[in-house]
Amino acid sequence: MIDILGSSWLAYAVLVIVTALSRLLCKNWFAPAAFVGLVWSFFIGVSLLVVEYPIPGRGLWMLVLLVIAIQLGALIVYQLQLRTRVSVHPKWAGEFDSFIGLCRRYSVVCTAVALAGCIYFLFTSLEEFGLSFTWIGVLEVGARWTVMRYDDVLEPWSVRLLVMWLHPAALLGGILFACSSKRIDRLIGAATLLPALGYGMLTGARAAILLGLTCWISGYVSTLCVRNEGRLKLFSAKRVATLLFTAVCLVGMFAAIDAVRDSTWYQAFVLDFKEQKLATYIFGSPAAFADWYAHAEISGAELGARTFAGEFDLLSVKTRTVGRYTVMSNVVAGAEESNVYTLFRGLIEDFTAFGALLVAACMGGFASWVFGLGSRNAYLTLVWLSAFYAAVIYSPIISFFSFNGAALAWVIAWLVLPKIKSRPRLLSAAYCRSGSVIP
């Protein structure tokens, strides 16, 4: 039925139109309906340009429908909120100052613990492999752990228990960076990304760096959104420059990680920029999902075992598979392969295609409700909105909360952040005459 709707480009055009309408209705790119559409319009558009063979239309339509389901759920709740939003509120003036001290203190503690885990992991690995403490020796650690990980050999539990604190460190660091304008606080906020970078180099894995960066960005963006009560511009000159700089850094990081993974047995470190391999890793997941769904034989429902794989494994409900998917999808005419299938493959395997659409709509609706709550409850909005942004940013790869460290970050944030007292729904008439109405 879906195949008769046309090509993959037609599916993409529908997503772009719905995203543009979401932006017009919500008047903000950071509103959940517009934000998820913006992220996926970018990734699907680039994927269509990168891959060198026709993407199955049936698979891409399913991907687009899942994204639109999130948008429709968010738009429905947004329209319902508009009908009841009669409150008038002042801006969050100095309330966020109470976040600074706590975020500074606990982000430093979490960063120190995670860095201690990286240092411990480095020296135990050097001793285990018989390597010297040199640049080549350190790079060799990453290459050897890459090989061992594909043989289902994981880092010791002691290392993982220490390093997992990089997630709350990055989340609190992003919030601190957004709350404070002091140079020392911003330096501390940026430094919280060091454990993620170090662990990624030592294991030859990109996931650790991407997870840390996702935690940081979600904390930073959600804090700015709440402080400005949803009025946050995306395409200002400063933010566009920051996005471009971040993109260049990520591409360079991926190239460096690939060099670490390909370095073996004390060979020289050579930065070999493999454009097609990087393009496949960064933008190949929409094509991989479409190819999988077009040929998938889905049986049963795993009821969350894919979406929350880490938590199910921790509770001994279902063992987590290293690398998650062992079957690769040829996303670039057989030249490059990928086993990255986006968040939505896990949702479908957990709840079936129809159930995944319902879950997606509920996720969008809840995120929109939280976004609209920002003028009355900063604490609640910050915690839940940052979780939504993190899930969306990481959704082109896999479920963000399938990692125990990611879940730990939001548990720590829930416990650490000060509970700013909720504002009353209605204020006095004297204030209403002088205040500003939240749009």
Polypeptide structure, described:
By secondary structure, the protein is mainly α. It has one domain (2-434). Helix content is 67%, strand content 1%. The chain is built from 18 helices and two strands. The chain has helices at residues 8-26, 32-50, 57-84, 97-129, 135-150, 157-163, 166-179, 183-191, 194-203, 207-227, 237-262, 275-283, 285-295, 309-314, 342-372, 378-394, 404-416, 429-434; strands at residues 329-330, 337-338. It has a two-stranded antiparallel ribbon with strand order 1-2. Helix 1 (8-26) runs antiparallel to helix 2, helix 2 (32-50) runs parallel beside helix 16 and helix 4 packs parallel to helix 8. Mean pLDDT is 79; it is low at 86-90 and 425-439.
Could you list some keywords that capture this structure?
about 450 residues, mainly alpha, two-stranded antiparallel sheet, 18 helices
What is the percent of helical residues? 55-70%
How big a fraction of the residues is strand?
under 5%
Number of helices: 18
Q: What radius of gyration results from the CA coordinates?
A: 22 Å
Kindly report the average pLDDT value: 79
Strand order of the largest sheet: 1-2
Give the total of domains: 1
The total count of strands amounts to 2
Largest sheet features = 2 strands, antiparallel
* Multimeric state: single chain
> What is the straight-line distance between the termini?
41 Å
What string gives the helices and strands in order? HHHHHHHHHHHHHHEEHHHH
| Secondary-structure-derived class | mainly alpha
